[in-house]
Amino acid sequence: MQFFGGSEISPSPPPPTVSGNNAHMLYVFNRNGVCLLYREWNRPLKTLNPQQDHKLMFGLLFSLKSLTAKMDPTSTEKGNLGVPQLPGQGCSFHSFRTNTYKLSFMESPSGIKIILVTHPRTGDLRESLKYIYNLYVEYVVKNPLYSPGAPIKCELFNSTLDQYVRGVG
Amino acid sequence: MAAIYSLYIINKSGGLIFCKDYGSAGKMDTNDSLRLASLWHSMHAISQQLSPVNGCAGIELLQADTFDLHCFQSLTGTKFFVVCEPGTLHMEFLLKYIYELYTDYVLKNPFYEMEMPIRCELFDINLSQAVQKDRVALLGR
Predict the structure, then answer these.
(1) Domain segments of chain B as ranges
(2) Which residues of B touch A (CB under 8 A)?
(3) CATH number of the domain bearing residue A120
(4) CATH number assigned to the domain covering B4-139
(5) Which residues are paired to A104 by β-bridges?
(6) Structure ipTM
(7) Any stretches that span the bilayer, and where are they (chain A) (predicted)?
């Protein structure tokens, strides 16, 4: 049974950048800002309750996207600051780094946002995020029992994800 | 001077006190720069709240599709950030150096009022020298 043979995105898992488990947590949001999935592997510090945390994260991404779209120094047509943009429109971002963590971000054309928070010294995770998106398509979207927009409760997806993330970043 | 697109300095309450453009496409008006500066100030603060471990000091590097944004926050809360081409090196040294220039030519200027927009000729002159491409490479050594 070949799962990833026919897909265009990342046919085989990209090689792990650093060995060991450096991932802190992962978020999946849909285009309406509903948190479909939240996984955490290593998070000693919790300042907010889960719901507020997800809202804050989505708000941060939304505002950072409008900031990058407005700041884009290579285009002349930038629109107005704060006007919502369609996925793929305007200049987006793929990661940011602080002294304690690195956040990698990917948005699919349908508005699914995948956020992976890792150790600050992990390398470029764009390929890994594409691979996680691929897992989402295979295990969640193609699951006939899954209704779009509902929180993800697929055991197979979670276990594959855990296994994959353990090797990444 | 294409490597660096622009430089912003924000005071500790999120107000823009200095902004210089080095050749980005499409002029940004003053209102938009002010809004971007305060937006960055709040995003910087929110990123600290979302940290999975203790001791987070905010975003240092934002990698967008067409540019990199490097940010340096001084101990007093003044933030310096440069927008440059993706993959430009030695930006943290440049920011430290700009901070030095700021302390020397702005803070030690008796006519400068704290937290107010920077209008110091000497700062402008020294800054434009520092931002030149070959100088930035020298800072990295």
Answers:
(1) 4-139
(2) 5-6, 24-26, 28, 32, 35-36, 39-40, 42-43, 46-67, 69, 83
(3) 3.30.450.70
(4) 3.30.450.70
(5) A95, A116
(6) 0.89
(7) none
